[in-house]
Amino acid sequence: MIKQIGEEIDKVFGPGVAMLADVGLQDTLIVAPSRLRELCLWLRDHPKYYFDFLANITAVDYFPEGRFAVVYNLTSIPFQLQLTLRVELAQDRSLEQLPEVPSVSMVWRTADWHEREAFDLMGIYFTDHPDLRRILMPDDWEGFPLRKDYEDPESYHGIPVKN
Amino acid sequence: MYTKYNQGYQQYLEKIQQIGSTEMIINMGPQHPSTHGVLRLELITEGELVKDVIPHLGYLHRCFDKHAESMNYGKSIPFTDRLDYLASMNNSHAFVMGVERMLGIDDKLPKRVEYIRVLVCELNRIASHLIAIGTYGIDIGAFTPFMWCFRDREHIMNMLEWASGSRMLYNYIWVGGLFYDLPVGFEQRCKEFITYFKPKLVELDELLSSNQIFISRTAKIGVLPADVAINYGCSGPMLRASGIKWDLRRVDGYSVYPELDFEIPVGQGLMGEVGDSWDRYKVRVDEIYESVKIIEQCLARLMTDFARLPDFDPRAMVPKKATMKAQNYYVRAENPKGELGFYIETKDKSDIPLRLKARGPSFNNLSVLPELGRGVLIADLIAILGSIDIVLGEVDR
């Protein structure tokens, strides 16, 4: 299944947009961030695959390397297929310039809250997101707690954070 | 200060400040009993009508993802219990399946272990659905079902306490096996419970399902079309009530579910339209009937083919140290609330994950609330929120 999808993507989008990753357990495509949204739309509406259900979005931090990844787990409900998309982002971990990925919340509305969570906890900026603000942490929290080099602040509004 | 990265928050503040002169902002929660926990809803209302719903989460955020990155897989199991604390067995079952798949021991487990897992998971599913139905009744104003549900749930809690030593947060299912075998006489007591419970369930069903007041409050309220449900990532009873036959126990066929006989109830719109609040309630009731069927089959197999042996050790396959190579895996399982997923990415030669993300079904099911809540009455919003059946432990993780 995955080889067929890879070949069709090469035909439609040209080579280099999606590469097969041979990581064993589940079918994974490594996608270039620039064409992500078109590719997601194509995968969602393709009559043979119909990946209409976005199960999960995960942001991964590869500290100490300056590298992040965003992982999309797709499911096709009519054809009972699963596919993993992976976007690799190279970035120098500065807080002034966050790594950027196009938002897919107009393709699947699930992505709205999942992307907000990834932004909140990992500091990935999703361009063209309709409502990108923190979701689990307070709105005025500083830093991105799920990054491996994150350090807790001493206090928050006068409340000691560390016991 | 207006920067690129706080744009969303500034836009939200502007939206709140620019409401019309006839509109009013009402805060519902985080201490409101009908928000089922510490959920805060900001409603923009005009008279009795809700014009917009803005959910605010995070009051119960316990940093599950961050904790899991600093301890090995076995130690994470008690934390997974606390995600959906009404269905702890199902949570640990899903997590444990993922770790076992990555270790490559998922198909080598003894059948007795698998059947015990399914048995306790289905018992816990009944307990979770009983809470959903009981608290939904109390949201609508029916008090009796709440008492009846809690009375029957207490029997399940006592049984699971007997098996695991804890009433709600069990840590019973371990990677590669179980904490202990079932106590002697558990199967018999479980059988007696099922005999007791079956007529009670019919009684409960009759009390609420055809109650005219209940129907008027729930039928044709919060109709969720199937395409919207899929697009918002709704799963479990939410998705099935919209008419989609999608149950991971059948789709993935994990554990011993392929050997068991059960139906997948879907919403039929008997009282109104397909996908309304009444359908979501009814799917849960029907699922209890199916869980009872599964439990009966599990008990029959556990008392005959896979009966207790004196030398049976449920911890025989538990790895001393769950080291694995660098890989990633997304495991999913059917929880009472929907699809619970864990995305696990491992480091090379380490028993501590590099990244572990829990995909709570309630988190996704709740995200459809602004869509359902626009243009309804405030009282109906309570009915819709209750029918979604969220658990805040899982929304905030």
Describe this entry's structure for a reader.
With 163 residues, chain A is α/β, with parallel strands linked by helices. Chain A has a single domain (2-160), classed as 2-Layer Sandwich (Beta Polymerase, domain 2). Chain A has helices at 2-13, 36-45, 111-122; strands at 18-21, 28-31, 53-61, 67-76, 81-90, 100-102, 125-127, 155-156, 159-160. In chain A, the strands form three sheets. In chain A, strands 1-2-5-4-3 form a five-stranded mixed sheet. A two-stranded parallel sheet of chain A has the order 6-7. Chain A is elongated and about 55 Å long. Chain A starts with a helix and ends with a strand. Chain B contains 16 helices and eight strands. In chain B, helix 3 (73-81) runs antiparallel to helix 4 and helix 5 (111-140) runs antiparallel to helix 15 (378-388). In chain B, a hairpin with a 2-residue loop joins strand 2 (40-46) and strand 3 (49-56). Chain B is globular and about 75 Å long. The two termini of chain B are 30 Å apart. Chain B has two domains: 1-56, no CATH class; 64-392, Orthogonal Bundle (Cytochrome-c3 Hydrogenase, chain B), CATH 1.10.645. The model of chain B has no long low-confidence stretch (mean pLDDT 88). A three-stranded antiparallel sheet of chain B has the order 1-2-3. Chain B has a three-stranded antiparallel sheet with strand order 6-7-8. By secondary structure, chain B is mainly alpha-helical. Chain B has helices at 7-17, 64-68, 73-81, 88-103, 111-140, 144-164, 186-209, 212-218, 226-231, 237-241, 248-251, 277-303, 361-366, 369-373, 378-388, 392-396; strands at residues 24-28, 40-46, 49-56, 173-174, 177-178, 328-334, 339-346, 353-359. Chain A binds chain B through residues 23-26, 28, 52-56, 58, 60-62, 71, 73, 77, 80, 82, 84, 98, 108-110, 112-113, 121, 125, 129, 131-139, 145-146, 148, and chain B through 4-9, 11-12, 57-58, 61, 63, 65-66, 69, 101-102, 230-233, 244, 246, 251, 327-330, 332, 339, 341, 343, 345, 354-355, 357, 359, 363-364, 367, 371, 396-397.
